[in-house]
Specification:
The complex is a heterodimer of chains A (about 375) and B (about 325). With about 375 residues, chain A is an alpha+beta fold. Chain A folds into 2 domains: about 5-250, 3-Layer(aba) Sandwich (Rossmann fold); about 255-375, Beta Barrel (OB fold (Dihydrolipoamide Acetyltransferase, E2P)). Helix content of chain A is about 25%, strand content about 35%. Chain A contains 9 helices and 21 strands. In chain A, strand 7, helix 6 (about 185-200) and strand 8 (about 205-210) form a beta-alpha-beta unit. Chain A is elongated and about 85 Å long. Chain B is mainly α. Chain B has 2 domains: about 5-110, no CATH class; about 115-280, MetI-like (MetI-like fold), CATH 1.10.3720. Chain B has 18 helices and 2 strands. Chain B has a two-stranded antiparallel sheet with strand order 1-2. Chain B starts with 5 loop residues before the first helix and ends in a 5-residue tail after the last helix. Classes of the chains: A alpha+beta (about 375), B mainly alpha (about 325). The interface of A and B includes residues 98 and 102 of A.
Chain lengths: ~375, ~325
C-alpha cells in the first residue's frame, strides 16, 4: 500500500494536448475516482500511472519513490481492465495465478512440464495455489477455478479480473471502468462489493469511470476531469454541494443541475429572470449564472420567485422529477418532489417555484464559482 | 422433408462437375497405382485393375536361367534338348516371380527408391521450416502489430513488398549464395532460404491486430516481458491462425519440387518425396507408371491424413472466423 503523487503530468498525442498538467496527491489507502466525460483524458492518465503509456512531461511517485523510468511490470501496481483482458487459453485459477507466477517463480520454474522438477518450484507452487484459492474465496468464485474465461458470464469474468488484481498485495489498484460492461443490476451490486473490498484491504484505489453515480458512491475523493485538466478534486459531498466550476456542477448530479441566467447590478445585487434575490457580489454589474439542484427548488403558492407550466413528469416511485418550462425564459427547470404532490402537477398546470437563496450556486459568465457573496441582505430593498 | 428445387439441383450439378475435374487426376493416380503395366498400357482393368498375377520383370530378369543353370538342370530333365530346358527353367523362374500388380507397384515404390528415407527427409525439412518460420514470424508480427516504434509502417510496407517477390526470381542468387558458403547438398540448403516468411509475418500480424490491446497491457501489468507476452499470451491465442499458416507452409514445402531439385544435386539421401518420383522417370524400359503413381500416392497420403485429423481446425484457421 502506498501513496501516489502526480506532478504536472502532460501528454500530447502528436498535436493534440490530452493532459495539460495534472497534479494529484493520493494518500495511502484512499479511493480516488477519476471521473469525466469520454475523451477527457482520464483513461490516459490511468495508463500513465500504470506505466503503459509514457507521459510527455511531469513526474510520478509511488510510495515516495519516482517511477517514471520503471516499466509497468516493475511499478508493483495491479490493474483491472474494462474488457477484463483475461487470458483466454488459461483456466480461472491459472489466470489468477499469473501475476504470482511471473513474480515468484524464476524462468526455469515457469517452464511447462519440466518446471515442476526445478528445486523450490513445488513449494512455491503450493503457496501460489493457496493464495489463488484465498483470492477466489474472497470473490466467491472458488467454484469456477477450472473453467475457461469463455465459459463465464460477464459478471464472473469481472470477478476473475478482480481476483487477478488482488491476488498479490500491490502498491495500488488501478481500475479502468470495470463495471461498464455489466448490466445495470449487477453494476449496483458490484459497486457495493468493490467499496467493501476497498475498506477491507485498506489499499490505495484509483478508479476511472464516466459514471458519476459510481464515483459518488464509492470514492473517498472524486477528481472531476475535463479536457485534460482536473477541475476539482474533493470528497463526493463537497463536489456535489460546493462545486468550484459550473462544468463540475453540471457533470455531477442526476438529473442535471438547473442553470438560469442571472445578473448583478451596479451595486452587486443579484437577480434572476428579473427577480431580485437577497444576494449580492462585491463586484459591480456582470452577467452571472445561477445553478440550483432539483431538490433546492420547491413549490409555493405565495410570492413565487419563478413561475412556469408543467411540461413533463417522471415518477420513479419514491420521488418525482417534474420538468417545468419557465415563463420568460427558454429553458426548462427540473424539480424533485414527493409523489404525493403529483396530483397538482398534471401536465400544463401553472406552478410557482421558490428556493432558498443560500442553496443557489453563483457562477460568473466563464463558469467560475463566485463564493464571496453577501447573504441575507434584508437591507437591500426588494 | 428436403425439397429439391431445380436451382438447387443445377447448383449441385455444377459443383459436382467442379469436384470431378479436381478429383480426376487423384482417381487416375490411385487407379494406376493398383494396376499392372499391361493394364495401364492397354487401358483395361477398370478402376482397381483385375489384380491378375503378373510377372515382376526385374525379378524375372534376375532369375533368368544362365548357362550353368542349364548344365545343372540336365539331370532333372533327361532326354530334353537345351532350348526346351531353358524354356522350362524360364517358366519356373517366372512362376516364382509372379505377384499381384498392387503389391508390385507399392513394393517397387519402397524398394527401388528409398521412399521411407524420402518421407523422413520431407518431415525433417517441412517441420524445421515451419518451426523456424514461427520462431521468427511471431515476434516480428507482434512488434508490427502491438509495439509502437519509428518506421513501423515502413517496415510493414517492406513485408508486403516481399510478398510480391516470386520465389523463382530470387532462386538463382539464393543458390549462388548457398553454393559460395558450401551449403548445397545439405539440409540447411533445403531449410534456410525459407525461414523468414513474409506471408507468415503478414498473416500473424493481421491476426494479432484483432487481439485486444488490453490483453497485452494486462500481461505487462502481470509482470511479463515482451518476449514472454509473445510466447505465453499471443502464441496460445493465435493457434487457429498458426494452423492456417501451417497448412500453407507445410503443403508448399512438402510438395516443393523446384527448390530441392536445384540445391540437392547428387546426394540421394537428401531427396525429398517429390524428388523420389524421378526414380521412375523414363528410363531404358519406358515409364513405370504403376510404381510411380504408388510413390505419388504415398507422398500425398500424409497431407491428406493430417487434413482429415484436423479438418475442423484447418477450416477455422483458413477462414479465420471463430476468433475475436
Amino acid at each position: 500500500m502506498a501513496t501516489v503523487t502526480l506532478r504536472g503530468i502532460r501528454k500530447n498525442f502528436k498535436e493534440t494536448e490530452v493532459l495539460r498538467g495534472i497534479d494529484l496527491a493520493i494518500a495511502d489507502g484512499e479511493f480516488v475516482s477519476l471521473v469525466g466525460p469520454s475523451g477527457c483524458g482520464k483513461s490516459t492518465l490511468l495508463r500513465i500511472i500504470a506505466g503503459l503509456e509514457s507521459a510527455s512531461g511531469g513526474s510520478i511517485e509511488i510510495g515516495g519513490a519516482p517511477v517514471d523510468r520503471l516499466r509497468a511490470a516493475d511499478r508493483n501496481l495491479s490493474m483491472v481492465f474494462q474488457s477484463y483482458a483475461l487470458y483466454p487459453h488459461l483456466t480461472v485459477a491459472e489466470n489468477i495465478a499469473v501475476p504470482l507466477r511471473m513474480r515468484q517463480l524464476n524462468t526455469a520454474q515457469r517452464l511447462p512440464l519440466i518446471g515442476r522438477a526445478v528445486p523450490g518450484a513445488r513449494e512455491r507452487g503450493r503457496e501460489i495455489d493457496a493464495r489463488v484459492l484465498e483470492a477466489a474465496k474472497t470473490l466467491e468464485i472458488d467454484q469456477l477455478l477450472d473453467r475457461k474465461p469463455g465459459q463465464l458470464s460477464g459478471g464472473q469474468r469481472q470477478r476473475v479480473a478482480l481476483g487477478r488484481a488482488l491476488v498479490r498485495a500491490p502498491a495500488a489498484f488501478l481500475l479502468d471502468e470495470p463495471l461498464s460492461n455489466l448490466d445495470a443490476k449487477l453494476r449496483v451490486h458490484t459497486r457495493t462489493e468493490i467499496a467493501e473490498l476497498h475498506r477491507r484491504l485498506a489499499a490505495t484505489f484509483i478508479y476511472v469511470t464516466h459514471d458519476q453515480v459510481e464515483a459518488m458512491t464509492m470514492s473517498s475523493r472524486i477528481a472531476v476531469m475535463m479536457s485534460g485538466e482536473i477541475l476539482q478534486c474533493d470528497a463526493p459531498t463537497r463536489i456535489y454541494e460546493d462545486p468550484n466550476d459550473l462544468r463540475v456542477a453540471e457533470f455531477i448530479g442526476s438529473p442535471r443541475i438547473n442553470v438560469l441566467p442571472a445578473e448583478s447590478d451596479s451595486s452587486g445585487r443579484i437577480s434572476v429572470l428579473g427577480k431580485g434575490l437577497p444576494l449580492a457580489l462585491h463586484e459591480g454589474r456582470q452577467t452571472l449564472q445561477l445553478a440550483l439542484r432539483p431538490e433546492a427548488l420547491s413549490l409555493t403558492h405565495h410570492t413565487p420567485l419563478l413561475q412556469g407550466r408543467v411540461v413533463h413528469a417522471e415518477n420513479l416511485g419514491h420521488e418525482v422529477f417534474v420538468q417545468i418550462s419557465l415563463d420568460g425564459a427558454e429553458q426548462r427547470v427540473v424539480l424533485r418532489t414527493d409523489p404525493a404532490m403529483q396530483a397538482q402537477l398534471h401536465l400544463g398546470a401553472k406552478v410557482g417555484l421558490t428556493f432558498d437563496p443560500n442553496r443557489a450556486l453563483i457562477f460568473d459568465a466563464k463558469g467560475q464559482r463566485q463564493r464571496n457573496l453577501l447573504r441575507a441582505l434584508q437591507e437591500i430593498p426588494a | 422433408m428436403t425439397r429439391f428445387s431445380p436451382s438447387l439441383i443445377i447448383r449441385h450439378f455444377i459443383l459436382m462437375i467442379g469436384a470431378a475435374v479436381v478429383l480426376a487426376p487423384f482417381v487416375v493416380m490411385l487407379s494406376y497405382s493398383l494396376k499392372s503395366p499391361a493394364e495401364i498400357e492397354r487401358g483395361t482393368g477398370g478402376l482397381f485393375g483385375a489384380q491378375e498375377m503378373m510377372v515382376d520383370p526385374k525379378c524375372a530378369l534376375r532369375n533368368a536361367p544362365r548357362r550353368g543353370d542349364i548344365e545343372t538342370a540336365r539331370t532333372r530333365f533327361p532326354d530334353r534338348d537345351d532350348s526346351t530346358i531353358q524354356t522350362l527353367l524360364t517358366e519356373e523362374a517366372n512362376a516364382a516371380c509372379e505377384v499381384r500388380p498392387v503389391v508390385f507397384n507399392y513394393r517397387s515404390a519402397f524398394q527401388d527408391a528409398p521412399l521411407l528415407r524420402y518421407l523422413l527427409n520431407g518431415v525433417i525439412v517441412t517441420a524445421s521450416i515451419f518451426l523456424l518460420q514461427v520462431l521468427i514470424a511471431l515476434p516480428a508480427a507482434y512488434a508490427l502489430s502491438k509495439l509502437k516504434f519509428w518506421g513501423r509502417e515502413a517496415v510493414f510496407g517492406l513485408v508486403l513488398f516481399c510478398l510480391l517477390i516470386p520465389v523463382h526470381a530470387i532462386a538463382l542468387p539464393l543458390y549462388l549464395g548457398l553454393a559460395k558458403i558450401g551449403l548445397t547438398n545439405t539440409y540447411a540448403a533445403l531449410v534456410v532460404p525459407w525461414i523468414v516468411s513474409a506471408f507468415g509475418i503478414f498473416l500473424m500480424r493481421q491476426f494479432f491486430m484483432t487481439v485486444p490491446d488490453d490483453l497485452v497491457d494486462a500481461a505487462r501489468m502481470d509482470g511479463m516481458t515482451e518476449f514472454a507476452i509473445v510466447w505465453r499470451v499471443m502464441l496460445p491465442t493465435a493457434v487457429p491462425a498458426l494452423l492456417a499458416f501451417a497448412i500453407f507452409s507445410v503443403v508448399a514445402h512438402w510438395n516443393d519440387y523446384f527448390w530441392p531439385r536445384i540445391v540437392v544435386t547428387g546426394d540421394r539421401s537428401l531427396f525429398t518425396p517429390p524428388l523420389g518420383l524421378r526414380e521412375f522417370q523414363a528410363g531404358a524400359d519406358g515409364n513405370l507408371y504403376g510404381p510411380m503413381m504408388a510413390t505419388a500416392t504415398v507422398i500425398v497420403i500424409p497431407l491428406i491424413v493430417a487434413f482429415m485429423l484436423a479438418q475442423r481446425r484447418f477450416i477455422e484457421g483458413i477462414t479465420l472466423s471463430g476468433m475475436k
